[in-house]
Amino acid sequence: xxxxxxxxxxxxxxxxxxxxxxxxxxxxxxxxxxxxxxxxxxxxxxxxxxxxxxxxxxxxxxxxxxxxxxxxxxxxxxxxxxxxxxxxxxxxxxxxxxxxxxxxxxxxxxxxxxxxxxxxxxxxxxxxxxxxxxxxxxxxxxxxxxxxxxxxxxxxxxxxxxxxxxxxxx
Length: 170
Ligand code: AR6
Fold this sequence. Notes:
By secondary structure, this protein is α/β, with parallel strands linked by helices. Helix content is 42%, strand content 18%.
């Protein structure tokens, strides 16, 4: 099941929330800032111990004060025109989160719109990749079977709905 939700990702009742982090896992603004605020300072400590994460890759941590099981920190690409591997790197973020969630037997996972804020990825193109990766995961695997695209605003949610409709009609 794929769900489009408008709101704060830290308030969702899911097994895993995904954080759009930076390579140093140093915390920041946007969804990263919201997750660190909600999880409490122990999250920054856990991230410091991990040390960092390459673009397109993920690092899991506990969720501390957020009532979910895990946080998967992923580092999306900074948009630099699209010819520097941005689509593949963004797809890799989604793919790796879904693969780890399957290995960890997580039943539900919520994604923010990775790279669509400070990292400036064109929203429509990012949404296309996100939906594509999630669809092909669900064709292969039943776990995690509940996937949430968590958007901060209605305009972004509408892009996901349009893309999901387009995929269903294909
Ligand atoms: N819940 C869900 N979505 C949110 C929330 C929230 N609480 N807050 C913002 N968004 P961004 P990026 C949306 O900038 O582009 C950080 O400083 C937001 O509207 O958070 O991958 C990191 O430390 C947008 O659609 O992530 C990195 O340095 C989407 O989340 C850098 O930003 C992603 O925007 C990562 O940039």
